[in-house]
Design goal:
The protein has 366 residues and is mainly α. The chain has a domain of 225 residues. It has 16 helices and no strands.
């Protein structure tokens, strides 16, 4: 009879504990950096980052700025799910950042130039993001080009193509694209009354619940379907999957297409809320796709866990804006996030250490 695992031996519990260790260490190192810059305000500074919207004294203001955090959590979650889904096939989709970029260009061009409604703009973003993922998958499956290399190259190609494309819809006196709200209100995603829950924050749209629903669907696909089993089997061993009759090339391409579509949808979730405008002079790929790496690993490579880790990463990132700028740079929050990303690489080490400790305790008892 198979021995029942103890509470601490369960993979989900170990993933949660490992994530908590990463978070605590990341915040501790961030606090030490604040101490090194200016010891007198370090405690107040790290608390300001952790509190984020709770820095406001009134409940309505807190709810409004919680809404802002959720608005940016939705696209981050989609990028994290993109990376998560591809990782199950043994693929590191660092190209999610570029897929997010081209999705941004597609939805904004459709909204501002073509005057299309929001759901069509969303489909444009999903389609173009999927095409960008298809390019990476095709190179990987048939030319054995490492997906990290091709993904990074396509990130920059996508950035400059989008800058050129959206130059046709930018404001005349600034490098930013025209506002969706004033140019094509029909391209804004509907709120369905959600904005009233967050002190009439007009940026809180159905993108927030949609992202959560997508995460749940991804979990079901991976855990409960034949297709999910096939792509995970391909990730474990491509040769064994091929021997078992699975089409590993198709699985690789399809996985990256889906990953690209998820990241593209994330871009639409952000820009079709009206929360941000695209700058056609930016020379670096937006951090949303890269922050998705932290979110998916901090979430234990589980789509449900990724919902919570995405919120935490965005919570800390947004919290950096509440630092006293006369003492500390707001980039401290990005530094803490980067440290957490680095520590995520040790999640497996933490889990192995915990397992060894539990095994030793069992041996002593026996």
């Amino acid at each position: 009879m198979k021995e029942k695992k103890s509470f601490l031996e369960r993979p989900a519990v170990q993933s949660i504990l490992a994530a908590i260790v990463c978070i605590i260490l990341g915040l501790l190192i961030g606090f030490l950096v604040l101490l090194a810059i200016n010891p007198s305000g370090a405690g107040t500074g790290i608390l300001a980052i952790i509190k984020n919207f709770l820095n406001y004294p009134s409940a309505p203001a807190q709810m409004k700025y919680l809404g802002n955090t959720l608005v940016k959590t939705a696209p981050l979650l989609m990028c994290a799910l993109s990376i998560n889904f591809c990782y199950k096939t043994g693929l590191f989709n660092i190209g999610a950042a570029g897929q997010f970029v081209v999705g941004s260009g597609a939805c904004l061009f459709a909204a501002l130039k073509l005057g299309l409604p929001w759901f069509v703009c969303l489909l444009f973003a999903i389609l173009i993001g999927g095409v960008w993922g298809f390019a990476v998958g095709l190179l990987k499956a048939y030319a054995n080009v490492n997906e990290v290399i091709s993904g990074i190259m396509l990130n920059w190609i996508g950035l400059y193509l989008v800058n050129m494309l959206l130059s046709t819809v930018k404001e005349s006196t600034s490098p930013y694209t025209m506002q969706v709200a004033s140019t094509n209100k029909g391209a804004l995603m509907p709120t369905l009354g959600l904005h009233t829950l967050f002190s009439n924050n007009k940026y809180v749209t159905i993108a927030v619940p949609l992202a959560i629903i997508v995460a749940i669907v991804i979990w079901i696909v991976l855990a409960k379907t034949k297709f999910g089993y096939e792509i995970q089997a391909t990730g474990f061993n491509k040769e064994a999957a091929r021997y078992a009759g699975m089409n590993e090339k198709r699985n690789i391409i399809l996985t990256l297409v889906i990953g690209g579509a998820l990241a593209g949808a994330g871009a639409a979730f952000l820009y079709l809320s009206g929360y941000e405008q695209w700058s056609v002079t930016q020379s670096s790929v937006p951090s949303m796709g890269f922050n998705g790496i932290a979110a998916t690993f901090l979430g234990g490579l589980n789509p449900i866990g990724t919902i919570f880790s995405s919120f935490f990463i965005q919570h800390i990132t947004s919290g950096g804006s509440y630092l006293d700028k006369s003492i500390y740079p707001s980039q401290i929050a990005d530094l803490i996030t980067s440290i957490i990303i680095y520590l995520c690489g040790f999640v497996l080490f933490f889990k192995l250490t915990l397992t060894k400790g539990l095994n030793k305790r069992k041996e002593k008892k026996s």
